[in-house]
Design a protein that fits this description.
Blueprint (H helix, E strand, L loop, with lengths): L4 E3 L9 E3 L2 H10 L7 E5 L4 E11 L2 E11 L7 E7 L3 H13 L4 E6 L9 H22 L6 E2 L3 E2 L3 H4 L5 E4 L16 E6 L7 H9 L3 E3 L8 H16 L4
Parallel strand pairs: 1-3, 6-7, 6-11, 7-8, 7-9, 10-11, 10-12
Antiparallel strand pairs: 2-5, 3-4, 4-5
Helix pairs in contact: 2-3, 2-6
Length: 243
């Protein structure tokens, strides 16, 4: 039987008793019908999992005793930072979910010339919290014990100062280099994927000035919610841990 995994945004220590997050507690009680004595697995992003036993489960909340820690070694040797042109609604959620499942290390949502989603300060805060919850849920499902960082949405012009890797690529159907023939990558890379309308010429100039090189992904033009995920899978297959 599959073990329920729950993200807890606080330090975890074997022998401690903690109250589980409100949303997780509601899911355990109302959906999974878990009772005192049932077991689950906790993680907080430190790279390990903590076996836990439920001791209190009711409408007011769920408490659990934290057990032994086990190191989880399933992070890809290829650390991919995804620069994603902000997509609308469920498309963005899908991108974040699948990118997390495929092992990305971080995500930087960017607003570009052709972005259809415009975020004011209040909406940006709410959207960031939502995006991070999507990533956490994907980690719970996929077995990851390290949570990819999702940064606040920002202008594309900031991308050059936000990224450390020198291996920087932007998806371009007209590029000469393809994933199948590109030079080997060791350690990390950055992948930039445009929004629904693609990168404008000014966007391309910004990315190229920041050291991004064009990278072709097959003979067809893919939608934003397909392109990045397909590219991540291809990169992980060639240089990471998808075999």
């Amino acid at each position: 039987m599959r073990t329920t995994r729950i993200f807890v945004d606080q330090p975890l220590k074997p022998g401690a008793r903690i109250a589980l997050p409100e949303d997780a507690a509601a899911h355990l009680v109302r959906v999974l019908r878990m009772q005192p004595g049932d077991r689950c697995m906790l993680f907080n992003g430190d790279g390990g999992e903590y076996a836990a036993t439920i001791v209190i489960a009711n409408k007011r909340g769920v408490d659990a005793d934290v057990g032994a820690r086990t190191e989880v070694d399933n992070e890809s040797p290829l650390r991919i930072a995804l620069v994603q042109g902000i997509a609308r609604g469920e498309k963005m959620d899908w991108i974040l979910q699948k990118a997390t499942e495929l092992g990305v290390a971080s995500v930087l949502p960017v607003q570009s010339d052709r972005s259809e989603v415009k975020l004011d300060a209040e909406r940006a805060v709410k959207r960031l919290a939502h995006w991070r919850s999507v990533v956490v849920s994907a980690c719970e499902q996929s077995g990851r014990a390290r949570v990819p960082e999702v940064e606040a949405a920002q202008p594309l012009a900031n991308v050059g100062t936000r990224l450390a890797s020198t291996h920087r690529y932007l998806l371009d159907p007209e590029a000469k280099d393809a994933i199948a023939t590109m030079p080997a990558i060791d350690g990390d890379c950055v992948l930039a994927v445009g929004p629904e309308g693609g990168w404008s010429e000014r966007d391309r100039a910004v990315l190229e000035a920041a050291g991004f090189k064009g990278l072709r992904l097959g003979p067809r033009i893919l939608r934003t919610e397909t392109a990045g995920i397909a590219a991540i899978a291809a990169l992980q297959s060639r240089f990471g841990d998808l075999v």
